Amino acid sequence: MQEGIVIKSTGSWYSVQLESGERVNCRIIGRFRLDGKKLTNPVAVGDRVGLEIEEGEDGTGIIREIKPRENYVVRQSPRKKHELHLLASNVDQAVVIITIAHPKLKQGFIDRFLLMTEPYDIPTVVVANKSDLYNDGDLAVFEYLKDVYEAIGYKMILTSAATGQGVDTLEDLLKGKVNLIAGQSGVGKSSLVNRMQPDLELRTGVLSDYTGKGQHTTTFAEMYDLINGGKIIDTPGIKTLAFNHLEPMDVAHNFREFFARSEDCRFGGNCLHRNEPGCAVKQALEDEEVSPLRYENYLTLLEEVEGQNYWERNTDY
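Below the sequence we write its predicted C-alpha cells.
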C-alpha cells in the first residue's frame, strides 16, 4: 500500500499525489463515515490516504484507508439534508471571501461559515473583496464588521482583484500554510486567486444581470501549490449553509466570545444565553461588551437548529 494526499475530488474520482510527486486517479470501495454520520463525499481534498495501484495499464488506484484527520471542515449537504458534505481536511487556515456589495453580503453568512471552522479552532480570515466597487456606505459597513470580528480574534482585510488592493497582505497570510478558500458565488474568489498567481488560471464568471448573484465557476474542490510555499484548497461557491447535524449547545459553544463568558452564567456551560436567569452573555449584551449583530445571528442559528426535529435530523429517508 502507498500513501498520498488527495488534491482533487470530482465526486466519483479522486486525484492523489504520492510522496514521489506522481498523481494517481483513484476510486473508493465501500462506505466511509464521519463519527457515525453519512457523508456525500467520504474522502476530501487534504485527506492523507492509503491506496493500492490497480493491475492494468491505466495506473488507477483504490483508496483503502483514510489516515486520522487533524481537522476537517464539514457542512450539511445542500442536496441531501440528512448527509454531510466534507469541504476539506487537514487545513492550517480557512479564508472566507465575501463582498459587501456586488453581490450584497448575505446577513449572517460570516457567522454561519465560522460555525464550520470554530469547532476545530481553525484560524479563519475574512476577506472583503471587490473594494473598488464600494461606495462610502459599503466602506462604513466593512469598518463596522472589521471592528466586530477583529475584537474577537478573527483577521479581516479589504481586497480588490481588479486593482490589487490588499493582495500582498493576503499573500503573506497564506504563506507556508494549507488554506481552505471558500465563499459565496460571485464574490470574485477565483479572480482574487488569479491576481495573486496568474499561472493557476482558475475559471472566473460574471454576475447574473437578472438576479445580481454569482454563477458557480468552480465545480469541484482542488488543491493548488502557491509560489510562496503555501497551498490553497479551492472550493465551489457556497449558496447556503445549514447545520441540521448540530445540537443547540453546539451553536452556543462555538460562538467564541459567548462561550468564554459562559463560565460566569448561573447555569454555566448549559446556558443557551436566551431567557435563562443570571446569564453573563445577556449582561454583556446590555453592557455593550458583545456585538448585537453576532447575538442576533446566534439566535437565528439557534432557532433554526432547534426547529429541525429528531426525525428530520436522523431519518435515512
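Residues 248-314 form a domain with the Ribonucleotide Reductase Protein R1; domain 1 fold (CATH 1.10.40.50).
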